[in-house]
Amino acid sequence: MISYLLLIFVFGFAHCERCFECSGIDNPNNCTTIKTCGAEEKCSVKQYVTAQGNILYDVDCLATLTCQSLGNIFGKRDARAATDVTTCEECCDGDFCNHQGCGATGLAPVGDRGPLCFACDSATGPDACNQVVTCAKGEECLLYVIPELSGPSQLVYRSMCEPTAACSAISSLHHNAICAPNCCIDDLCNNQCASQTTACDTANGWQQWTDGSTTLCVKVHNEHQNWEDARKTCIADGGDLVVLDNVDKALIARREATADSTLDGQSGIWIGAKDFNDNNQFLWVDNTPVVVANGDWDNGQPNYHDGGHEQDCALMWGGSPTHFQWHDDWCEKRLSFICEK
Ligand SMILES: [Ca+2]
Ligand SMILES: [Ca+2]
After folding, report:
1. Is the pTM of this model over 0.85?
2. pLDDT tens, 71-94?
3. Measured in angstroms, how far is the CA atom of residue 249 from the centroid of ligand 1?
């Protein structure tokens, strides 16, 4: 977060244009690489004739001062190759404006083509892709986080064209708490995540646990309460005991509990599963069943009762050989607990 604020501080006050950057192309609208210009630069197009008689274009950023002095350069020898003759050089205002210029036709009107979209297999930020492609009609721009390439500290993003139905299907498969997948139809719209509806408000001790693709918004309580009182405390705080209803969530909770040196979890930490109906069928507090294959029970657990006590409530046990796997235990035990909202 601090580095992000620093970036805003350093770059936030000067608008830098983003422009196409290619050389030796036969039409500016064929360029598929973009770059961010300096603060004192604009997008530009240069047309020149080679010794072989070919008319080619360079598109790039150009210093604003140089842009202002353009006009008397035609017919001069180009510095890039002694035999090239520059026939036109123009600057323009606005992001990506140099897809046309020097008489060259730009991109077709939006209605006659698909959107121009960023297209990178893997980029380190939503705005870190510098390759673009013109999509076919009926396609949209897509941006999403690739879970298998992402880690807790570094998300990896993919951008591309997709037909509308596929865009929506891929989006629903790649929900990410930090970056919601974005399907959008405007030119170059897929360099930002879609707006989040489920951000974790981290005031008052709440924190976000994530593995990059799965996220929990939790609050760890070190004061000891029995399972029912712990649940009441969570509900009073706008949440409930934590639901770990898939393997990713279970592993995130296990990892975070193990890493938290302040956590008093040796005797166990209550989580939101209970044998509510006393029929040896654990349910989460949201009333969904605890599916054994998706759970993280320790060896021999749940064993439902022990020494005459029903064991109806689930905890992550700090004494487990694999720390913080789950046990069922006596609900009246007073333990630490994890709330979720
Ligand atoms: Ca029972
Ligand atoms: Ca047990």
Report:
1. no
2. 544 444 445 556 789 999 999 998
3. 25
